[in-house]
Amino acid sequence: MISNYELPHEDDQGTVVEVPNYEKEFNNAKMFLQMASTVTGDNLYDHLTEVLNKILAERPENVIDFFEEYSRKVKERRFRPLTDHLEDIYVPPGRYDLSNKLMPVLRPLPPGEPSTVDPEDLEMADMSKNNMMELNYYLEQCGIGLPRIEMCYIMLSIRKLIHTEPISSIRFWGKIFGTLKNYIVLETELKEEEYMKRNETYNQEAENPPETTTEEVVMKGEGGLAEALNELAKVQELPGEGGQSKYPRPLPPEPVILYEEPPEPPPEPSGVGVNKKVYYVCREIGQPWIQLPDLKPKHVRASRQIYKSFTGNLEEPILTYPEFTGNEMEYLRAQIARISAGTQISPLGYYTFGGEGAGEGEEEEEDEEAAGGETKTEYRVNPKYEAPPLKDLLDGSMSFWVHHTQYILPQGRTTWWNPNPMPELGEGMGEELGEGEEPEAPRGGPEPETGPPLLTPLSEDAAVEAVPAWSVRSSSNIIDDFAIVVVRSNLWPGAYCFSTQGKLFQNVYLGYGHKYMEHNFSPLPLPPIQQEYPIGPEIMEVTDPTGAEEEQWRIDHLPKPKPMPPAEEAPHEEAEEEEEEDEDE
């Protein structure tokens, strides 16, 4: 605070001396210090401010001895060479777009967002089994995998998906590459209540088939009109102009199609067989997950006969021969089911048919019951599982690896459907049979389709010519204690399974969704043309005759002249006798 200030006064010479304006002088001094350099663009005011802030932040001893050093460091930090033409913050366009796609996933879920999953069921969809960073680490050890950013996004999107869909378990299935875009696939299991709702809807559609279309009504109408015209032509013969009937002549009968298409097997219910799992796909990072529909047997049969690359558009029509009745969404679902059925494997003994708390005796009883009954379709994790040693997992015979997914029959289902079931026996027929007698099976019926049971060793898989079905290797031949076993499918290139020497193993698919073919793909030939009419001379094609041949044919087919009758001798003799009698008279 200034206390000894002076008022304006006159000096000895009589000149008025004005008191200086300190505020004005302060502003002028500050403006002088803020004058920017014409070389670097910096000013002394900002430089002193940064130097003082740095000194106050560090508070060194004997700062007066290091003041110039602090000033030099501040200048070095701001130094920029003339060759640096980049902006202060430059973000590439690709990274900028990727960050915009990842931001919605990185935000926490709103607390008031409604969830279709109960809090108790959220524990079933445990995210501890979907540590994508750990999975990516093991995949990198195997020499495969996806970018870390993509794996991180999958993990975050899974966390968001289980809060919006009724999912009980979820797993990263793999990635299928397409020509335009790719498909990231998740394998899930829904809640039992959701499966029941889906099956109820399916049963209602089966009980109430779709109504007859307009085209069918028109076709039936044309047939009825033709029958009415035929009846009128037969009963009423009203002559018109020119002696012709007013009604058209009776039409020939329509040809009857004797061929009957075989009955189409019904699809398996949701949560059973090929529809036990529900799959979600996403075409790229940032897009929503789309649930694939349930699989139909006809789509499986058609996918086995075609070979088409994916485009990345779920609505893309499949134009192939044989015809595939559906778009790329159904084709993708069929290929995922085929890949899963052929490449989902696990170490021997990890799964068992016995219950979790079952003892050895109970497991043996269940195995005996299964041997005399139907094939088992349910299994559980073996609580007494002990991982096989590394040398057994690396055995080339593949006897220590088994399939844990049901085989898809040629019919397109995991369980065989009888198109011609045996009729039920009546009460009278049941009484005629004795107690120990059984009804004979109908002869000539279709043979049931069978496949390998669950938990069948990989050693029984068929090889493709000289190529084995599976290849196995170790991630490291030096450090055996921490090596990872990698199993690769040769029938479905892109299917891998890795296993640590503990209880951790994982199946993943990274490929184009096509099965290996030993030869180039050749589509099925067209069926032979059916004979519509019996072969006869009236419909056979012959060479037209020439003019000379026609003339010769005409001459050969001219009517022959009638032969002259021979002369009769008896009448001539009688005439001579009559002349002689006249002369005598």
From TrEMBL:
Compositionally biased spans, kind Acidic residues: 359-371, 429-439, 574-585
CDD domains attached to this UniProt entry: DD_CrRSP4-like (cd22963)
Domain of life, source organism: Eukaryota
Localization per Swiss-Prot or TrEMBL: Cytoplasm, Cytoskeleton, Cilium axoneme
Alphabetic keyword roster: Cell projection, Cilium, Cytoplasm, Cytoskeleton
Region annotated Disordered, chain positions: 352-377, 424-456, 544-585
A Gene Ontology cellular-component term: radial spoke
GO biological process: axoneme assembly; cilium movement involved in cell motility
Protein name according to UniProt: Uncharacterized protein
Organism of this sequence: Aromia moschata
